[in-house]
Amino acid sequence: MTFASKITILRICLVPVYAVLAFFYADTVKIGEADESLRWMALGVFVLAASTDGVDGWIARHYNQCSAFGAYIDPIADKALLLTGVITLSLVDWGAPGWRLPPWFAIIVILRDCIILGGIKILYLHHRHVKIAPHWTGKVCTVTQMFAIGWVMLRVVEISPVYPCLIAGFFTLWSTFAYIQQGRAILCGKTN
User: Fold this and answer.
1) C or N terminus of the chain, fewer CB within 10 Å?
2) Residue 114 maps to a domain
3) Which of 105, 107, 109 is nearest to 81 (CA)?
4) Would you say residue 54 has pLDDT above 90?
5) Which residues does 102 contact at the CB level (< 8 Å), separation at least 6?
6) Which domain holds residue 70?
7) For the chain, give me the number of helices (H) and strands (E)?
8) 151 pLDDT above the threshold of 90
């Protein structure tokens, strides 16, 4: 196992640590005695885990440590972190009552990933080669989703999390349709 893959495994290990800290913080909020140190620890773990995504990729490319295992495990680690953040922050108040990601946003994010995985499975069953390469809308989608998560966790501006979620939701839906179109083109043999 390469060093880059070990960093990816670290990201996976940090996901439950973040979730536990986030739920502990939410419990202190619920009883009216918010322990801000738990909030900052949860945020720190999330940022550390998110930053390892760039680090492992850079190490893999720079030190020629690209591997089939790394290519397989990296998107799993990314999705584990992102989905855990979205689901956790849609279930618990993160400070003031209602300061959370709206449930509709979590549903859109989860459905998008289910549609993409289902599409890949359909293409696989039809013996189509799928080169997994992110579409630009998928990258913007991920950035806006992370921004919405950060908006809730940082609480810098008292503008409702609904607004960044509307932007992230728009790009989540756009990228879903872009990937469906790519999948249809592959299925119809128009590209590979």
Assistant:
1) C
2) yes
3) 109
4) no
5) 90, 161, 162, 165
6) 1-81
7) 6, 0
8) yes
